[in-house]
Amino acid sequence: MQNIAAIKKRFVETHKYPSLRINAVLFDMDGVLFDSMPFHAKAWVDALNAIGLNFTERDVYLNEGSRGSETVQTAYTRQFGHTCPEEEEVQIYKEKSRIFESLGEPPVMPGAKEMVSALMHRGVKRTVVTGSGEKSTIKKLQTTFPNAFAPKDIVTAYDTKKGKPNPECYLKGLEKLNMPAHYSMVVENAPLGVMAAKNAGIFTVAVNTGILTDDDLRQAGADIVFKDLIELKNAFDELID
């Protein structure tokens, strides 16, 4: 059993914050609200392997949170030693998106609706911060979680210049919610996302819903790691007091 009170106290002391009060939660989208990472993994692996780039499912999970262009450049530079031409980069991402769309709608992550509903009931502010540019999944947020996330507050790949682990996306999320870091919490599932949230100075909870290990998330800086959103919701009262 994790000592949540001690973890929160250590976070406050480390950051020299006056306190930690969770009045807002910033959710990553893929792998947190939607079980969409297997879809993204297949789409990226198929699109990149088709042009001779060696990119595995684990690579996809480790790069989750990057903007699409950054993922292409990472794979290209690692293998060829130079950046990908812009025109080819655009075509690769279009093919990745085509494959992703062909796989159908990803399911809602177990426990996601209950978690969001509990936050709404308590009056906790909410938004989504994603490095994704997949418009179908972003649109699905509104139908799956009606009235839960104000469109004006959502941060996507179209709102930032740099992907995770750069803190820009989470800082923008705080700005949109008009909330300081020490009144907020991030829910992430990917190392780069965890790093982005920590770089923004926000208390960061990781849910390990993919193929990575808990240590992958802890080493990225997660304050607490849960196995899923259901386990996280069961610790809700201790986290948000």
Question: What is the secondary structure topology, with strand pairs?
Answer:
Elements: H1 4-15, E1 24-27, H2 37-49, H3 57-63, H4 68-80, H5 86-102, H6 112-122, E2 125-128, H7 135-144, H8 168-177, E3 184-188, H9 191-199, E4 203-207, H10 214-220, E5 224-226, H11 229-234, H12 236-239
Parallel strand pairs: 1-2, 1-3, 3-4, 4-5
How would you describe this protein?
The structure is a single chain. This protein is an alpha/beta fold and 241 residues long. It folds into 2 domains: 4-36 and 109-239, Rossmann fold; 37-102, Putative phosphatase, domain 2 (DNA polymerase, domain 1, Orthogonal Bundle). Helices cover 49% and strands 9% of the residues. It contains 12 helices and 5 strands. It has a 5-stranded parallel β-sheet, sandwiched between helices. Helix 2 (37-49) packs across helix 3 (57-63). The longest helix has 17 residues, at 86-102. The protein is globular and about 50 Å long. The relative contact order is 0.18.
Structural class given helices, strands, pairing?
alpha/beta
Q: Bin the strand percentage.
A: 5-15%
CATH class of the largest domain: Alpha Beta
Task: Tell the overall outline.
Answer: globular
- What is the number of E strands? 5
SSE string, helices as H and strands as E: HEHHHHHEHHEHEHEHH
Total number of distinct structural domains = 2
Distance between the termini: 18 Å
Query: Could you give a short account of the major beta sheet?
Result: 5 strands, parallel
The CATH superfamily of the largest domain is: HAD superfamily/HAD-like
Q: Which value, in Å, is the CA radius of gyration?
A: 17 Å
CATH topology of the largest domain: Rossmann fold
